[in-house]
């Protein structure tokens, strides 16, 4: 009896739950955190909301001045006009022409820059060669040179190559300017891959391209998504290179958007301007929301680790 009564408290303590007590969902600390996040979310979402509701209103309703109110009568005519009827200089075909120009610039620029940068990063992280560190340092320096410093030299180079004022010339510019930062991202990501995996592949007889295509590429989807999002956002939203190195017939979408919004002729159609702005930003938004989780994984897996 004495032994049984003596061991009972010990058994109860042994079966008791361990660890920290679960935190209350609506604790004062959490309430403050959620309130702060809500304020910031409203702050960043409010301009987008105003753009959307304005683009769905007619001009008579906009003149009433109720900026934040939802449209009393939804109309998609501003979107139609922004896409196919708005005047961008002497042409009145909307953003459609600029959209396809931007697509022709975007696809080869993204594919070429990412393909070359991934091979550069793979070589610099796993296949050290004489002068590799110097080459890497030159690329890093190139990533931080202001674009404005190189505008005139690049214009001369494109002129000598007969590429000035062409889509091919602009593709080359975007490819070159995207190379340094993308190489940095891929190098740091491939450097985070266990070295034993690379050595085992070498022992099995795999060469440079064999390791790249059979081992590195299959496990590099997150960093490729990071690179795609960065390049798509930068190239699609570019205005400076587009207005300098192309001509009116092949202006990208952002240049045509500027011409629509800053037009001084006729009535200022705010609904058309808002619709044109939303159309211009749809491509980066869709790509980001479709691959947001992979973007976070790529960042967390060594994309920005030195």
Key features of this structure:
306 residues, mainly alpha, MetI-like fold, 15 helices, 70% helix, flat
How is this structure best described in words?
This protein has 306 residues and is mostly helical. It has a single domain (1-306), classed as MetI-like fold. 70% of the residues lie in helices and 0% in strands. The chain has 15 helices and no strands. It has helices at residues 2-15, 28-55, 59-62, 77-84, 96-126, 132-143, 151-160, 167-191, 195-203, 208-216, 221-236, 240-245, 253-261, 270-290, 292-303. The longest helix is centred in the middle third of the chain and has 31 residues, at 96-126. The chain starts with a helix and ends with a helix. The model has no long low-confidence stretch (mean pLDDT 83).
Q: What gyration radius follows from the Cα positions, in whole Å?
A: 28 Å
CATH top level?
Mainly Alpha
**Helix/strand order, N-terminal first:** HHHHHHHHHHHHHHH
The total tally of domains equals: 1
Oligomer: single chain
Unreliable runs: none
Short description:
The chain has helices at 2-15, 28-55, 59-62, 77-84, 96-126, 132-143, 151-160, 167-191, 195-203, 208-216, 221-236, 240-245, 253-261, 270-290, 292-303.
Write the layout of secondary structure elements.
Layout: H1 2-15, H2 28-55, H3 59-62, H4 77-84, H5 96-126, H6 132-143, H7 151-160, H8 167-191, H9 195-203, H10 208-216, H11 221-236, H12 240-245, H13 253-261, H14 270-290, H15 292-303
Helix pairs in contact: 2-14, 4-14, 5-8, 5-11, 5-13, 6-8, 8-11, 8-15, 11-14, 11-15, 13-14
